[in-house]
Amino acid sequence: MPAKNKNEEIIDLTHKYVANTYGRFPITLVRGKGIKVWDRAGREYLDFVTGLAVNSLGHCHPSVVSAIQKQAGQLLHVSNLYHIEPQARLAQALTKVSFADKVFFCNSGTEANEGAIKLARRYSFDQGYKNRYEIITMENSFHGRTYGGLSATAQTKFHNGFQPLLPGFKYVPFNDIKAVEKAVTSKTCAVLLEPVQGEGGVYPANKNYLKALKKLCQQKDLLLIFDEVQTGFGRTGKLFAYEHYEVKPDIITWAKALGGGMAIGAMGGSKQVMKSLVPGTHAATFGGNPLACSAALASLQVLNRKGFLEKSCAVGNYFESKLKELAQSQNAVNSVRGTGLMLALELNVPATSLVTDCMKKGFLINCVQQNTLRFLPPLTVSKKDINGLLKVLKELLGKLPS
Length: 402
Known about the structure:
Blueprint: H1 6-17, E1 29-33, E2 36-39, E3 44-47, H2 50-53, H3 62-72, H4 85-97, E4 102-106, H5 109-126, E5 134-138, H6 147-152, E6 169-172, H7 177-183, E7 188-193, E8 196-197, E9 203-204, H8 207-220, E10 223-227, H9 242-245, E11 251-254, E12 265-269, H10 271-274, H11 290-303, H12 308-329, E13 333-339, E14 342-347, H13 352-360, E15 363-364, E16 366-368, E17 372-375, H14 383-398
Parallel strand pairs: 3-15, 5-6, 5-7, 7-10, 10-11
Antiparallel strand pairs: 1-2, 2-3, 4-12, 8-9, 11-12, 13-14, 14-17, 16-17
């Protein structure tokens, strides 16, 4: 029997000891720097997935690494029974750059959405609406894998085998204000949506739709919740996607890029709404721990550097324009969607094989909804990196049946 290569050793261990919840590719990534990652055999890849929009500054950004190293030598974790300096500093920094007045910290995007669901119901209760608990969400949405997030997610493929889901959610078509109006009843307390649907295929909301949604929520005394777990922290060309629409929600959820690679989630809201969170209403043991908050502070400082987001936005515009040029020359392409560096190429044929083919040529990309290639490169990606991927995509798309 031939000797196993270095990747196969870890693959075998994963299959034997790790729960089989992911469809994994046959490589073991062990090192990263900027847009590049290396597998255990030393093969180099350009990463246009970035941990599903987590490593937005690239892998092992020096500022984030330095902050983690310093904090790791001081204090890793203490209970939220005490005041935590990096947590307080991070909350202050987030309120300075967003509409939020106060922030609750947790560990992931789905936890942040769980908190938002609880807060929306509790706020309505505190306002005297004793029978308000329903939350309207959008078809093709994705809000996480915990039961609250799963129940809010309006994609049946994620529900199979987990019914009954939690009650109190209504699903309506995305970008359809009339459908929302029709769904509102005396039991409705909030509307929850992603400004740009990520897992659903990279579908941005229409500006007029979000403005009408905000107006409707104000008229009906409903809370508007934006899930910016994937779109937050520069992914769409602005620090937060809601800035594109000139619409401020009442509650916002964050995670992914917030920690610069460290696991952290957060929920922010207006002072009026956040008053409903009092001791005993919600908690997270590891939420806002010193290590994750220090990493997030360092990441946010980089994002706020003069010209950083403007440069990233310009590169995103370049990437989008080149994808559109590619689409015009390829019969297999239906459309190009997205904003900033959250882009998608929808094909009229299954796209999963292209992910594997790109990987073989040294590029990591992602496929959603079976026929849509999703690109989430670091915000520091260069035109040279993009051109390299485009060359490979053109070659592979040209081989597909017309």
